[in-house]
Amino acid sequence: MKKTLKVLNELKQKGLIQDYAIGGAIAALRWIEPFFTQDLDIFILLKDKGKKEIIDLSPIYEYLKAKGYEWKGHWVVIEGVPVDIFPADPLEKEAVEQAQETEYEGIKTKVIIPEYLIALFLRAGRSKDYRKIEMLLEQCQINKEKLQKILNRYGLNEKFKEFKEKHYGR
Amino acid sequence: MRNSKNLKKNTMEDEQKFIIGKRILKRSDFFKEEETRKRKAATFSFEEKIKILIDLQKLAYKWGRKNIIIWKI
Fold it and tell me: Does residue B49 sit in the same domain as residue B38?
């Protein structure tokens, strides 16, 4: 994990990406009790900000391939950790920008904060995502005002209401 | 009718008391303690949580999920 984060930081240092943050289950795990998961989701901001229909990740993939990292389906296995790399869309971009800087065994990294994770899991909308929302709401301090603003900006209010009605009966 | 009988039985079971050492606990006390434990686990360091995750991956592998990649710390 430590070496994996070092390689991800290298992508930033080499200018292949502008920034990145850990998202998905591992980001959730940063805020809630440990649970089983397999992959490390990384959201990246690319330097070229122009809107394109096809986002070219080849330079990143070539760089990692040249370093000897194997591809297993959608994952690239970096130092023994299966990593999914996602170019950030507008909500994810904001989540990366607002992510909390943290350290893992002395290596700097960024982790998406709970309010954005809730919005991202809500948008994904699978049952496993809803379970993580429940755990985030129950186990960590949520800035409700911040969450509300994110949900408003990305049109997720109705979905959140439905979630609360279904899971908490309100 | 059958459902309401089951409901009654379950409610009664919820009120069962257990003696553990000097403590008398109800099932609801177990649930409360579980919630407290979860909140405490949520405050573990990132490093501790990753170690626990790797233990879970090893366990899943041992129990037959051979396609699992066990992370390297």
Answer: no
